[in-house]
UniProtKB/TrEMBL annotation:
Annotated keywords: Disulfide bond, Endonuclease, Glycoprotein, Hydrolase, Metal-binding, Nuclease, Signal
Gene3D superfamilies, A to Z: P1 Nuclease (1.10.575.10)
InterPro entries, A to Z: PLipase_C/P1_nuclease_dom_sf, S1/P1nuclease
SUPFAM superfamilies the UniProt entry points to: Phospholipase C/P1 nuclease (SSF48537)
Organism of origin: Robertkochia marina
Keyword Signal assigned: yes
GO biological process: DNA catabolic process
Name of the protein in its database record: S1/P1 Nuclease
Range of residues in the leader sequence: 1-21
Length: 261
């Protein structure tokens, strides 16, 4: 293999891994975490801060992605998503052998609620839970297996080669150009009634709520299409709502775990 071929091969491998690894990008996950912090009870906030040794939810929100660089955690890769055919129910499909995001969230809750869990385990699974609730609200993480959650749907984002998954993960957020703190301050304004509605149900219900958007997202593009300002105009508000819902629901779940009524 000559040097040029070797270089091109390396670039291809890196690009493939990067495309598949994205989920809301670092900014999106931090937005969800920042929103969640605003809806925590004081008791929950104090217990979480102690468990995270003073680290904020925003700081740990990308931990589940960061550990992908450590081969010891390779078995957790399938925990970031779930794939099943459009129009079908999750419960009717064969459970993923390596787990999926629904099973992952269930495991995190189980560990955090178990009084017999070690402190280290609780810290680890809390960091994962913060990330996975964010992933649960990215529509292509509740996608189809045959296109790897939109990773195989190739298109162009402005003048760059991309795919549907990456557009929703990172590129719309990057194009908007706000920091996570700026974006978290500029999400849709909701009243108490809307907040209560968003919090209703559990993570299974939230998964199906995201799934409704997933179906719309799949229908929003054609393979090879060039997307740009018009796509942002049509869809960025939906993305903002998902970040907001993820944060409110994360807080609701954390309050249930750390400050049950």
């Amino acid at each position: 293999m000559n040097q040029l071929t070797s270089l091109l091969f390396s670039i291809l491998i890196f690009t493939t891994v990067q495309v598949f690894a994205d989920d809301w990008g670092k900014t999106g996950h931090r937005v969800t975490a920042a929103v969640a912090d605003r809806y925590l009870t004081e008791a929950s906030r104090e217990k979480i801060r102690e468990l995270l040794q003073g680290q904020s939810l925003e700081l740990v929100s990308n931990y589940a992605d960061d550990i992908k660089s450590d081969s010891r955690f390779d078995h957790l890769d399938p925990w970031h998503y779930v794939n099943f055919p459009l129009g079908e129910k999750y419960k009717d499909e064969k459970a993923a052998k390596g787990g999926d995001i629904v099973q992952a969230i269930e495991k995190c809750i189980e560990v955090l609620k178990d009084p017999g869990s070690t402190r280290d385990d609780k810290e680890f699974y809390l960091k994962l839970l913060v990330h996975f609730i964010g992933d649960l609200h990215q529509p292509l993480h509740i996608g189809r297996a045959d296109d790897r959650g939109g990773n195989n749907i190739q298109l162009r984002w402005f003048s760059r080669g991309s795919n549907l998954h990456r557009v929703w993960d990172t590129q719309m957020v990057e194009q908007f150009g706000m920091s996570y703190s700026e974006l978290s301050d500029n999400l849709p304004v909701v009243d108490p009634r809307q907040i209560k509605e968003i919090m209703m149900g559990d993570y299974n219900d939230w998964m199906y709520d995201t799934r409704k958007l997933t179906e719309s997202v799949y229908g929003s593009v054609r393979v090879g299409e060039k997307l740009g300002y018009r796509y942002m105009y049509d869809h960025f508000d939906s993305l903002r709502w998902q970040l907001l819902k993820g944060g409110i629901r994360l807080a609701s779940l954390l309050n249930e775990i750390f400050d049950p009524a």
